[in-house]
Amino acid sequence: MFGHVFDLLAAYAEDQVDASTRARVERHLAQCTECRRALDDIRTGIAWASALTAAPMPDDVAAAMREWLLAHDAGSARWHDSIAARGLAAAAAVILAVGIGLYWHVNRPWIQLHAAAAEPTRFEQEGRALHDRLRSDAAPVAYRSSDERARVVAVGAAVHTLEGVRTSVLSYRIDGRPVTLALALSDEVPEAPGARWWSKRVGHRRDATGASTLTWTVGGGTYVMVSELDGAGQRACLICHTTPRFRAALERLSSAAPLDRQ
Amino acid sequence: MPLPPTLEAASRLDDDFAQRERKRKVEQAVQRLPPKLRSPIVLRHIEGLAYDQIARVLGVSIGTVASRVSRAHARLARELKGEV
Known about the structure:
The complex is a heterodimer.
Chain A: H1 9-13, H2 19-31, H3 33-49, H4 59-71, H5 85-107, E1 113-115, H6 122-136, E2 152-162, E3 165-174, E4 177-185, E5 202-206, E6 212-218, E7 221-227, H7 235-242, H8 244-253
Parallel strand pairs in A: 1-5
Antiparallel strand pairs in A: 2-3, 3-4, 4-7, 5-6, 6-7
Chain B: H1 5-32, H2 35-45, H3 51-58, H4 62-80
């Protein structure tokens, strides 16, 4: 039938449409069996999906992550020549900052994803290059879990120098795809993306290799996250947002002092 | 007539098991959705975001969110039909 309203049906069923759209959908439904049937399906789907709850991070994964971070001291892994005890502490702080930062990101409606600047900053370029280096020489997966929800696997943590700035770097995998996250103090990073204390601006670019690079500044830190995740790489955000126990485990890991100045 | 205590406990266990099993199947069905459809479902039902908030997080229009959520729910219903 002409003018089907399928695209609006979930919003209609969940009362997310304005009055005029609601009236239009109802006028169409009154005369369209196909859309009424689709609405029934969508309502069933909504009922099932409403039962979803955040998947907790399994205890063995949280414990393994903590063990890994605490056990890997200087020189114990292939790309860890610069790692130090304070690097671990800083990396733990990075994880915490990411958890909190991403939570902030989703819950601050004025924050949007922007196109990246025309030319990447050197900090962004070096973060991107670091990702390739880590990826080509990545340590094997540190541990496995029988739990299929264990989608985040820590690979390594280190302190590197990017653009002459001391940077905490965390390498991990999500569903087997490598992710590199680097954090430095924003006032030490030339051309850091501008942000006020209450907001942030996120730049996103995807290069020919399929790698997605997000850069942002928030809370005094400048971040670069490189991944080969779908979309804008926000799957990493979703995992942090949807596993409160993951965030809690990260908070427990961050008992040491946060990243500080040298 | 109420069930004897032992049967009542067994019945409760059965219910618990069935509920867990249903939830597992729904989770698996959501995992099978392509990322474009899965992300809005997760943001909607786990994070509890409104459609306009989902649009901002994913960097797409609210119309795109509405369309993807409709498709995702319809697909979930089809996949879970007769299974749960």
